[in-house]
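Ex. 9. Protein: Lecithin:cholesterol acyltransferase-domain-containing protein.
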Amino acid sequence: MHTSLLLLVQEYDISLRLPEIDFSRVQVEWVRLRSNIPEVWKLNNDGREFQVGEAMKERDLTARYPVVIIPGIISTSLESWSTSPEYRPFFREKVWGGFNMLSQVVFNRERWMAAMMLDSDTGLDAPGAKVRAAEGINAASNFMTGYWIWAKIIENLAVVGYDTNNLYLAAYDWRLSMWNLEERDGYFSKLKLMIEGLKKRQEKKVVITAHSMGATAKAMSAFLSGEMRDTVEMNPVGAYVLERFFSRSERQQLFRSWAGSASLWVKGGDTIWGNETWAPDDEPEASHSHGALISFRRDLVVATDAGAEQTKNMTAERVGNWILERTPSSFQKMLSTNYSFGIERDGEVLARNDFDNRKWSNPLEIRLPNAPSMKFICVYGHGKETERSYWYAHAQQVPNESLVDTELPKAEEAGTPLDSSRLRSSWIDAEYTNENLTPKVRNGVKIGEGDGTVGLLSMGAMCVEGWKRPRWNPAGINVTTVELPHRPVSNMPRGGANTSDHIDILGSTTMNEIILKVATGVGHEIQEAFVSRIREYAQQINWD
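Predicted structure tokens for Lecithin:cholesterol acyltransferase-domain-containing protein:
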């Protein structure tokens, strides 16, 4: 959302004055903007449309296997189906995705929040609200006009003969837990029938191409304080507007109500992510370890009743418990009944986990299917700075949510430590920047490796090591890993043909080539390629 707003501001020269903003004028400008956007916004076309498909077509390659696309979390557009009087003005309009969503966030925030939040007890629609996933190819082709997601892949597939008869986009309501997604919408049953129907009708295997859903440190900070690197590194205009229209506490409230977002919780605990002094992806001679997922600076330590006891830095496992101690019982219940975040090494237990829905979204606690002829291809970007761990501050006094430049409480004013009756506020220590450390710290974020959103360990560790082991891959499914270096073109808003940004990689030339090669039957041409040290990192994990 932040990226889209900045693109709009830059493209159409929208001026926002600080510290006072004339919001009536902004609304007039917004209406003008929406009515004057070209039918095909120029950011949608950068010279690569259909090129990969044309190159494949020149090789006489055509559609061979049916293709099913499964979008990443938050990629699917959501529509309002509520007929309650307060929601009727936007019946069947998008409440997630498109310009209408941005209009609702800016000018009708409370109603939009009410529609998007899920009931804290049931994990389903809140009373009076009814939101469902959009359907069809367009459900995740573009987030809004010109801001493509799957559009370029769909364009290139179309050149070699794909259409709605052999190409299916499996949109879903990503807010829901996996269990509720099946219970309410029958999503997985319908997906199963679609895959089996395509295979039976065309007598060929089906290619499933999925994106994102990796475990991320970003998710942990969002659950804890409603923040992430994107929010603490905003320019003053973007930060002011975000807090004015969609505050930190509101973001936190929404995120915690979306049970589906908990699938992004880091998995494997300290075994995968490291301890207080070491992590498998630490750089040589590191000044501090990524294994301390949440760290506290000494000068911001909160004094306890017993004296100046320092708050301990926290590993992945301790962070999880710390978040749960600061969340409502309804959130804790949702998490325990829908998810599991450990690592399982016992073969008999792994077999039983086939029947435990809590385990299904954790590749460390579930086996790959018994399908020896299946092939996995892991493709992801590398070379873009990615948040891996954080420096946090906390205090009993809650900072003013409405102002970006609010002075945070000093250590001696911060109050007493957490107990059962008194909760402290926590936030990323955005004032802390030190580019000379390893890893470097920028605005309270420890920078690691990845694609700008998902860390390298999450993307590659199972591909290069975990799934090479029979306990998690009993059928010996062949797994090929391809890392794409991040080489963006500086003057192109989305990075150009060689970007490997988490979202923009879906428009990169190499990613499109890989998908089309598999779909047209020449997937054997794809060779493993590495640009990172993921194999070294993965070997340092205690898999046994």
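Check your answer against this statement. The longest strand covers residues 386-395.
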